[in-house]
Amino acid sequence: MAGENVKRRFEYERFGPLIALAILFVISAVASPYFLQTQNLLNILRQVSYTGIIALGMTFVIISGGIDLSVGSMVALVGGVVILALNWLLSVFGEGGEAWAILFALIIGLLFGAGLGALNGLMVTIGKIAPFIATLGTMAIFRSMALYIGSAGVFRSESNLFPDLGMGRVLGIPNPVVVFISLAVIFAIILNKTRYGRYLCAVGSNPKVAMYSAIKVNLTRFISYVAVGITVGFSAVFLSARLNSMSSTNGGMNYELDAIAAVIIGGTPMTGGAGSILGTVIGAITLGIINNMLNMLGVSPYLQGTVKGVVIIGAVLIQRKRSQ
Amino acid sequence: MGEVLIETKGISKEFSGVRVLDNIDIGIERGEIFGIIGENGAGKSTLVKILSGIYTPTGGKIFFEDKEVEIKDPLHAKVIGISIIPQEFNLINELNVYENIFLGSEITRKGFLNTREMKKRTISLLEELKKSIDPEEKIERLSVAQKQMVEIAKAIAYDSKLLIMDEPTTVLTLNEIEILFDLMSSLKERGVTIIYISHKLKEVRNICDRVMVLRDGQMISVSQTGEVDEEEMAKRMVGRELSQIFPNKVSPSDEVIFEVENLTISGLLENISFSLHKGEILGFAGLVGAGRTELAEAIIGIRKKDSSKISIKGKPVEIKSPNDAVKNKIAYLSEDRQGSGILTSFDLIKNTTLISLPAYSKILINSKKEREKTKKYVDKFNIRAASLKTKLEFFSGGNQQKVSLAKSLDPEPEIFIFDEPTRGIDVNAKREIYRFMNELVKEGVSCILISSELEEIIGMCNRVVVMKEGRITGILEGEHINEEEIMLHATGLKGVA
Ligand SMILES: Nc1ncnc2c1ncn2[C@@H]1O[C@H](COP(=O)(O)OP(=O)(O)OP(=O)(O)O)[C@@H](O)[C@H]1O
Ligand SMILES: [Mg+2]
């Protein structure tokens, strides 16, 4: 009997964000007749996918007890480098090799994102710098590098095919959404079903116990920063493909806020040690629906930040109530 | 006799529908030392947590100084005169000693913190406990015994009428226990009432006036300690007759399986050399600060060694991390259960397989295998848990210890270092653990037993290494393994230091 009760409370905790999303969904459907149109729903998903993808990696970092503030600037830097690389590859591969050039540019984007993530990871693990401070530093550095390389302007791609990657669809679903969902499945499996996921929670929950349990604490943390770097790589490539450009000044602006907000709304505690990828996906979609509704209802865009803030704080308050 | 200070009427407590305390009626007199004993999970901590405002009872009434009170929270308890030394440390690691002692009741002057006064009071409190700990030392840098002393200082800092001690001596050595008992006697003379929980029945008999036995949340008996001996207490706790505590010793083979030569860490350990035979239980005795835990941590690669030669079955090995230790089939059961042993936010299954996880997964974790293995340990050690998915924070202290043991055991080590393995474990479970160690050595596993309980060292070990201040003062064998010899070596009166 005890087991049952404990279980029920646990399930409630797990499905809390989902219930909130369902309620929001119903309210939106009632409030606006356009909301339920497939095109609108797909649009919401596409809009949230760029920060949603990053939020997946962010979930790992937060579970490990860290945070990454640099992801927004990283999007601009990686996006810029991808476009420069693409333009150069186009000249190397010539007319017929455009698809190859794009594929290589994608790989470069992922590797470069991983590399920047590794840099954050090294500072946090070997350098023993607090994650908040280390990534606050790289947030400034990455943005400034993007501005410098791009002369504070816009990186423009010379490819005609590149936008197809960003705008294309698979079975009617926009490419970035496909990437978001696929990565979410992979991240969820890693978190729940593999050794690494277990170690990540252990390290975030109590690094000393993890160390005594023969877990490589630094390596585990380091990998989480590389993971978020890779997600930034995906996000940057698909964002720059959609626009066929990347702004060094605005690209990825405030993405860190949305990514972290999605993680929090999804129920992953900021203290680390536990977390849920499904929650993060739900958190990202919740944010997207809120934005969409505010737009449709004609609320001033300046007020949207306020609503977002209230939702984040509310989510944390509810979670704390529940855990007591 | 005297006047009643605190009285409970029909106190009950349920956790998600399970009753863990059932209609407890007690009356404790002013100036009395009242013992509570019972098996792991009997409900001892739950009862005193209710009296100190940490839990609210599901039913029943509490009368304090003849008035009915509803104790809202620990601060309220402190204000009316009840303080507790909890079973698990409740100190903030990042703060220093005096900040912890005065946490929530800081001394101020004109609105500012009066740090000088707080430091002064801290020093005098620790002096009362005959401890010299720097009041500005961070808690995380203290040993478990020191943390316990700080926890005691914190409780007595506030002049309370009722002082509750939940297993305060599990991490202390004989000398410190004596200091604590002296303190308890003088508090008693001052009219302070003490509730004392312990699994060390001898202590309970010596220090307490009366003792209550709890079993499965039921009050079994309350008696004068003069009227019941330890055997009777144990019998009442378990509800049946118990067999002999220590099993017969098994003789080890001649084969040396593990050898340490000249292990040195400057300032901590000096030239430690010993060998461990296959199937042997090698005891490590000594006072606090002798460096036994530090030695264990050096062996398993947590502490950097300045020099050492370690060999397993004659082959030299390098152990630079706990991972190397596990690869070399060495297991370590930490003395600091919550600090380095178990993850309180993980469930039973995930704790059990934390070290041995590679054995459960190629790419994906085989959760069925995990669950089945965990069930085996639950049966083997009689771990009491609501379910396999229950987080460890909801386990009683002794049951957490059993999980910690299962976790170290799961990688199937050949060399097992036990650091205070029976800490916080009830008499019955202790017996089971001793029997279990015996089975292990019969199977050819070799054990190192670090313990502050001399009885345990004497009852279990084939040979005993005695340490003092980072050096080995003697290795005792046969009839030399007795209390007197061990203490003489531990204090340095005998043996080469
Ligand atoms: N917060 C909680 N939530 C759910 N169950 C709990 C909680 N705290 C204790 N329990 C359960 O209540 C029972 C009594 O626990 P308690 O901690 O009082 O035991 P104890 O007698 O102090 O044991 P030990 O000697 O091991 O410290 C146990 O079965 C335990 O699992
Ligand atoms: Mg207890």
How does this structure look, described?
The complex is a heterodimer of chains A (324) and B (497). Helix content of chain A is 77%, strand content 3%. Chain A is built from 13 helices and four strands. In chain A, α12 (277-296) packs antiparallel against α13. The longest helix of chain A is centred in the first third of the chain and has 30 residues, at 2-31. Chain B has 497 residues and is α/β, with parallel strands linked by helices. Chain B is built from 17 helices and 22 strands. In chain B, β7 and β8 (112-113) form a beta hairpin. The chains are: A mainly alpha (324), B alpha/beta (497). Chain A binds chain B through residues 1-3, 5-7, 9-10, 189, 193-195, 198-199, 201-202, 205-206, 208-216, 273-274, and chain B through 15-18, 302, 321-323, 325-326, 332, 334, 339-346, 350, 354-355, 357-358, 361, 363-365, 386-387, 389-390, 407. Bound molecules: adenosine-5'-triphosphate and magnesium ion. Magnesium ion is lined by residues 44-45, 87, 166, 396-397 of chain B.
Question: What is the structure about, briefly put?
Answer:
Chain A is mainly alpha-helical. Chain A is built from 13 helices and four strands. Chain A has one domain: ABC transporter involved in vitamin B12 uptake, BtuC (Orthogonal Bundle), CATH 1.10.3470.
The amount of beta strand of chain B, in percent, is 25-35%
| CATH topology value of chain A | ABC transporter involved in vitamin B12 uptake, BtuC
The helix-and-strand class of chain A reads mainly alpha
What is the CA-based Rg of chain A, rounded?
A: 20 Å
The second-level CATH architecture of the largest domain in chain B is 3-Layer(aba) Sandwich
Q: Total domains of chain B, how many? A: 2
Give helix % range of chain A: over 70%
CATH class of the largest domain in chain B: Alpha Beta
In which range does the helix fraction of chain B lie?
25-40%
* Unique ligands: adenosine-5'-triphosphate, magnesium ion
From the N-terminal CA to the C-terminal CA of chain B, the straight-line distance is 53 Å
